[in-house]
Amino acid sequence: MSNLDRDAALSVCGGRGFVVAEPVRELLTPRRVQLGESTEVRRLLPNLGRRMVGAWCFVDHYGPDDIAAEPGMQVPPHPHQGLQTVSWLHEGEVLHRDSLGSLATVRPRELGLMTSGHGLSHSEESPVPHPRYLHGAQLWVALPDAHRHTAPHFEHHPALPQVTAPGLTATVILGTVDATTSPGTTYTPLVGADLTLTQDADVRLPLEPDFEYAVLSMSGEVHVDNVPVLPGSMLYLGCGRTELPLHARSEASLMLLGGEPFAEEIVMWWNFIGRSNGDIAQARSEWMDGSRFGEVKGYDGAPLPAPELPAVPLKPRGRVR
């Protein structure tokens, strides 16, 4: 998914200077962003209060939206570099096309994982016809310097492993949960899981104390470490936890995101991640002149033009403002 903000700001993220080395309960408020004509998203990362959770650097939550009489998601071809995109649905379908020739329909609780590496472009759209409701999350994972120029590739994993306990089903999206590992490719120690809780479930999920964590509420009424987390909001949990207490007041779903704190500082602007202003300026120029990122074939529409780069000096601000 693209960042369609036409006033995209340069920001420096990462580094371990602002990692919370102990358990915390920091509730993050989303920013509402219009994505195309008919989809509004709630942007949780980057946030005024926090920019990364492990290598997770971008999180949009959308829906549930009734798109029976709407085109649904319509994101024209756009570029990415230096990151992985993670498409995750609870309802609906998203048709993925990319400049490698990949064509896949991602359905609920299937993993669509695109590693942009040195650069590629893709589009995302609700197929025709499409299901009535659309509900999901789009996330980015920053690639470490050693892998940010890797060859781009796309993975579609329709079946993912699960961890079960009384009242809990955890689908492992990326990384490992309780010795159960996703087939998705990762480049830093991280984890992503979809947690489904039954009404009145009271469970404790094992965690890695060296990871920092956050949870995104997708639906239902749930208390995370005694903090009520409403759908579309995210609770940052810090590090130093060996388990996570969860109590569901109703049937509920959460996304658990975590990982080893990302050591490198990254520059993130529009749909690019680099290490300097020069990296970003070069990527923008090569997208606009067509010399990198390739062509998405089969999408009925023009590619997205890049916004203008801001005429301000880059000011490192770390993981938080």
Automatic annotation (TrEMBL):
<dbReference type="InterPro" id="IPR008778">
    <property type="entry name" value="Pirin_C_dom"/>
</dbReference>
<dbReference type="InterPro" id="IPR011051">
    <property type="entry name" value="RmlC_Cupin_sf"/>
</dbReference>
<dbReference type="InterPro" id="IPR012093">
    <property type="entry name" value="Pirin"/>
</dbReference>
<dbReference type="Pfam" id="PF02678">
    <property type="entry name" value="Pirin"/>
</dbReference>
<feature type="domain" description="Pirin N-terminal">
    <location>
        <begin position="41"/>
        <end position="141"/>
    </location>
</feature>
<dbReference type="Pfam" id="PF05726">
    <property type="entry name" value="Pirin_C"/>
</dbReference>
<feature type="domain" description="Pirin C-terminal">
    <location>
        <begin position="193"/>
        <end position="292"/>
    </location>
</feature>
<dbReference type="InterPro" id="IPR003829">
    <property type="entry name" value="Pirin_N_dom"/>
</dbReference>
<dbReference type="InterPro" id="IPR014710">
    <property type="entry name" value="RmlC-like_jellyroll"/>
</dbReference>
<protein>
    <submittedName>
        <fullName>Pirin family protein</fullName>
    </submittedName>
</protein>
<comment type="similarity">
    <text>Belongs to the pirin family.</text>
</comment>
